[in-house]
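[job 4471] stage=fold_predict status=RUNNING
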Amino acid sequence: IGKRVGIVGTQRRGSIAARILKCGFKCDIVAYDPKPDKALEDMGVKYVPLEEIWKTCDIISLHCRGHPSTKHLVDAAAIDQMKRGVMIINTSRGDVIDSVALFAGLKSKKIGSVGLDVYEFEKEYFFRNFSGQFLKDDILARLVRLHNVLITPHQGWFTKETLTEMATTTVLNVVGIAQTGKPPPLGTQGVPTEVTAAMLVDDAEAAPPYQRGGGSAGGGPDASSSAISRKVEPGSPASGGVKVAMFSSQPYDQEW
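[job 4471] inference complete, writing structure tokens
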């Protein structure tokens, strides 16, 4: 409560985080984004250069998109500018942070604590069971053992609601193009055509052990995936030969 928090990236997720921290925790919020959010500015959020965020914030929360321009945005030079004991939270993309520089900052105690839902080299490790095995990635192996580092394996989106929303948005975009030549302007909002969602359980043998049986044994998320069907009225532009099937498949190497 009352800490200065820097939000890097204030599109949908970043703006929600800013509102929660400002209204719920009374934090002093500053932000950086190439396209400032006027609604946040009206709430008193001040947009500042990245250098000011690095130098003045107690907590830095990353919400920027993956892009060559954001790769290693937090590197050794950025960390060197930060306040001693800074907390860094990354729920955006793993390579936004230089992992070697991050570990060095933790080791020197320049960084006080870290929360990661993503990791630079997560592809080889996340959503896989490494029980009883050694991690070949020395940085990740060290990070998971530190008392002041919390790592979740890219689980921020892995809920029934989010999977359904992802699948629904994808289908509505496809059907919107078929009907009007462009996707709905607000994703799933403001679209009158009926959308139905059905939860289908994946093949039990294909699922990892902790997800078999359609439950959440072992702490894993529900093993079901969302199937979204779009109902198109007879005679509409999309009714003549356009069929869309979409499954928000499990992330363990299945194809969308």
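[job 4471] summary: Confidence is low (pLDDT under 50) at residues 187-232, 246-256.
[job 4471] exit 0
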